[in-house]
Amino acid sequence: MEWRRRLALLAVTVAATPLALGGCTADREPGERAAPERTAPLELVVTPTDRARDVPLTTEVGTRVRNGRVTAVRVVDDRGAAVEVEPREDGSGWVPRSTLEPRRSYTAEVTATADSGATTTRKTTFTTQPKSTRPAVTSTLYFAGDRTYGTAMPVTVAFDPPIPKEARADVQRRLFVRTDPPQPGTWSWVSDGSQVYYRAPDFWRPGTRISVRAGLAGLPIGKDAVGDADRRATSTIGRQVALEIDNATKQMSVIQDGTVVRRIPVSLGKPSTPTSSGKMVIMEKRDFTTFDTRGEPNGGYVVDVEDAQRLTWGGEFIHGAPWSEGDQGSTNVSHGCTNLSAAAADWLMKITQVGDLVTVKGTEVELDEGNGWTAWNVSWEEFAKGSALPVPAGLRPSPSLAPQPSAVAGGSPAPAPSGSGG
């Protein structure tokens, strides 16, 4: 019958169709291997682009890698001489250790390796620009080599003329600091662009080795100027010393490795020429100098002083003042300086280092931003806001480590601008 013929046909059709079982059942013969997973391809992009011309003398070899890492970088000039390069910490590029020369060709060969072991190599040849005829921005690195500095020493670079806001990120990318042992920090700009400071959230650990490079020679700065020079310095942090000066008591506390070792009577600035309150850093030390304030407001005198330690660009010093010893500890009579007895000033010169923290409190005026190395006169949060580049995550204040004793030697940074105290 017709219905029996249709039922038989349906049975044949079902029997010929494979059954779909659970997803864990392999649909292959025993011993047959699964197809290998496809790995993402290794990608490598190198800059400058091949045959690029008129590139700045501060050009770096930029590398962008996906699914692998850079394993070799080789740079040679047009005479075949090798050019030493250093990697940026974030891996974004390789920086020549010396500024490139004008009107020269360079070839960079970069190799990247995938996790699978596969490699790829890219090569680029580029030519630098002629020597710039634009005016140079004068930069001064206030961090000399082969010195021993205090634990509050900020790495300071000053600029003349100041760096405009739109150019600060480019300048900051060419400022490098390495510390051993590692103690990360950040740069922060004075608001007018005349100085930029580098420090860590906490004071440097005694014994830290700090290497600095301001690689600014030939760097385009805005549309109208270039950087003037490439400077380097490496120095060491000495023992912890800090000075605390209280106007209420007219006393200076000298603190070494966390212990007050001496209290010294002082005379600060009189009301018409008050001493600044704030956190300062000893900038330079002079066994002998002359203060000449003729032509300055509230000035007009010339006086020779001994054992002078500069705190501000405006001319505030700690120094010996035998003429005011009768007032020290009771009355302020100076023109803004911190006056000590001749004997105390001589003793203090043997204890302090450039880079030691000096805190003054209770006077009539506050320390102005940038009047000296004012990196510690703000909180870490405020300091980090002054960076022209993103601050790495995790750089947050932490309790200061207990200072450890260490050897110390005196030292001065590069010569400071003239300025008189009293």
Automatic annotation (TrEMBL):
Signal peptide: 1-22
One of the record's GO cellular component terms: extracellular region
One GO MF term: acyltransferase activity
Pathway(s) of this molecule: Cell wall biogenesis; peptidoglycan biosynthesis
Active-site residues (renumbered): 319 (proton donor/acceptor), 337 (nucleophile)
A Pfam family reported for this protein in Swiss-Prot or TrEMBL: YkuD
Annotated PROSITE patterns: LD_TPASE (PS52029), PROKAR_LIPOPROTEIN (PS51257)
Keywords, comma-separated and alphabetical: Acyltransferase, Cell shape, Cell wall biogenesis/degradation, Peptidoglycan synthesis, Signal, Transferase
Segments crossing the lipid bilayer: none
Domain L,D-TPase catalytic: 241-361
Extent of Low complexity compositional bias: 403-413
Positions of the UniProt region annotated as Disordered: 389-422
InterPro entries: Big_10, LD-transpeptidase, LD_TPept_cat_dom, Transpep_catalytic_dom
One GO BP: peptidoglycan-protein cross-linking
Protein name: L,D-transpeptidase catalytic domain
Organismal lineage: Bacteria, Bacillati, Actinomycetota, Actinomycetes, Micromonosporales
